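Sorry to interrupt, but I need a hand with the structure work. Could you write out one complete protein record for me, on any chain you like? Just paste the record in under my message, thanks.

. . .
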Amino acid sequence: MKKKAKSQHIKFHGFHILYYAVLTLFAICVVLPFFWLVMTSLDHFDSYSLPFPPRLLPQEPSLFNYEMALKNVPILSYLLNTFILVILCVLLDVVVATLSGFCISKGRFPGRRFVLLFILSNMMVPFEIKLMPIYNIIKDIGLSNNFFGVILPGVMTNAMFIFFIKQFCDNLPSDLYEAGVIDGASKFRIYAQIFLPLMGPVVATLVVLDVVNVWNDLLWPMIVLTDVDLSTIQLGLVRYNT
């Protein structure tokens, strides 16, 4: 009996070793490119071509590349523009998505299902197809070369976030809403004081997704922001490389 238990313990222990070995291998595969990227940026090169074979550690550690980047490219201005865009976009997305999702989930008004279907149908149309009509609208209302010209189309067409909030609110007990109504709270107060605090986990997820999406966005800012001083980090780097 003891031998059998010992054999099972060895097998279980061996499985754990293999499990963590595989996890470690995956972690190395994920971290290594970022490590190599940082180390390469700290190496001093006489030209822009990388050495072959590539080396993992810099032979001549230097901040020369960063000094040249700050000297030749207004990267701090690009970063500031990007941070402003990210903050404004995330705030508006959270407000619009939480309000819309809450109203569609807990509201009782005619055509509620049609409104949800109309919002979700927006996800079926690629942004590239809607690009020219949206740009013409932005241009006609005078929002070209303006951060709000970049932000508003994304906020108004962000069906995925609204759908996430709606599904989350559907899973919350209706007793919460009814208790607020019985206590005489307005619909906005029920939203702000009861449901919004409970939306913390899903809102945090949406914020992360939105930050990554806005930070990496290139096509729409390139069309709307023709003024170089308003360039985001992605747009500025593309313009510098070309």
Summary: DSSP finds twelve helices and no strands in the chain. Residues 1 and 128 are 68 Å apart (CA to CA).
